[in-house]
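Section 5.1 Outputs to date
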Amino acid sequence: MRRAGESVARLARALAPHARRAWVAAGPGGNGGDGLHAAAELRRAGLEVCVTLVADAGVLAGEPADALQRARDAGCSIGPRLPGFEPELSIDALLGLGATRAPAGAMQAAIQAFNAQPGCRLSVDLPSGLQADTGDRLGHDAARAHATLGLLTLKPALFTGAGREHAGQAWFDGLACMPDAAIGQVARLASVADVAAALPARTHDRHKGSFGDVIVVGGAPGMLGAARLAAQGALAAGPGRVLVSPLDPDQALADPLHPEWLWMAQAWLPGRRALESDTVVCGCGGGWAVSQALPALLARAARLVLDADALNVLARDATLRRQLRARPARGQATVLTPHPLEAARLLGCDTSRVQADRLGAAESLAHELGAVVLLKGSGSVISCEGRLPVINPTGSASLSVGGTGDVLAGWIGGLWAASGPGTADPSAMGWHCALASAWLHGQAGERPGASPARAGALAEAMARLAEGLRSGAGCGLVSAERASWR
């Protein structure tokens, strides 16, 4: 606990090097003890420190009691009241992993006061009022920090759901302790290494036939733009060829602005295409017309990415869901890319339940449908039965515009086709491609001020990032990532 407090104080001084007055809001448990040790360290460094102790000092025992005495000995002002000055640095050490109910009374008031501070705000281990494994708020109020220092292990709440907004920049200190295997790992973070591992080698002796074909099935009347964006994403990821098969029967089978695309009417019909060797991206702008193609695609496509309206049709048709569940036994693999509303429809619940436990929702979908699931949103979750879920740490609200999901679905399909069928596990390569694509998509969409990204520009931005990693120029990305997430 003392090492934790020292680490909190070091990060606090680095984040607010000119601060002269600090406020620590400390709760009754181990999180509060960490904060009290941090208060002692900051006082000894010369700062004026006020501690609001939201606990009965007389009943503290063990390490928290020792921390309280150390803060007193250092000269900190300690009591139940809020500080009488405006601090340049505020530390939230109120609630930790053990919190199970909504903050109330003095605890709620302390959280509200913390959120109102204009100076640097740092949370210890977990913003108070968040559920550690889900990122869901326990009640109406939860701490909103500029930064959070994770201790011993990183908590999923820092990276998904509402937690990303509350945690700010995530930092980590393992405190020189070996992880406790008994705790159990519930997820891990996607990384640059995941991207590098999924990018196929492009050696001189390979040709377009080496990198597979992608078929984009979508674009019902009035919605061809979504299929075009998926085709852009697919082509930028590096397959041998991209074919567009529109669901609008009156759509001309050509596009002078994209002569590199091939076109094929109703590619899913018997005799039109050997889908058994193709990667198909289906659903982008599909409307309900996609239902005419789904049975054949589920039966025959070797690798299938289902997005948007393909997911909505699945949600309404139990027969199609049974077809989907049967694919792994035939050596076929599927990646689903739902946003929270689409996931809720598939699970038969409302969006709030999905968002309250994004990890659990993704795992349930993967188990029920026998597919790799990429649950989009703040901290996208990638899940597959038998694998540890992965949370993607890249991305921002700039991606919250129409068309960005179409590009992501297309890119997954293009990368999957270029990578080949993969191992004996039919889902393995789809899993790796979903991880890599989510990371690149998020990284390409991170923009200053979270200004909206243009979906049409995302595919090329992702391609530039991927090329930088292939050539070794991506080392700067690795360094930046480590700086942000250590």
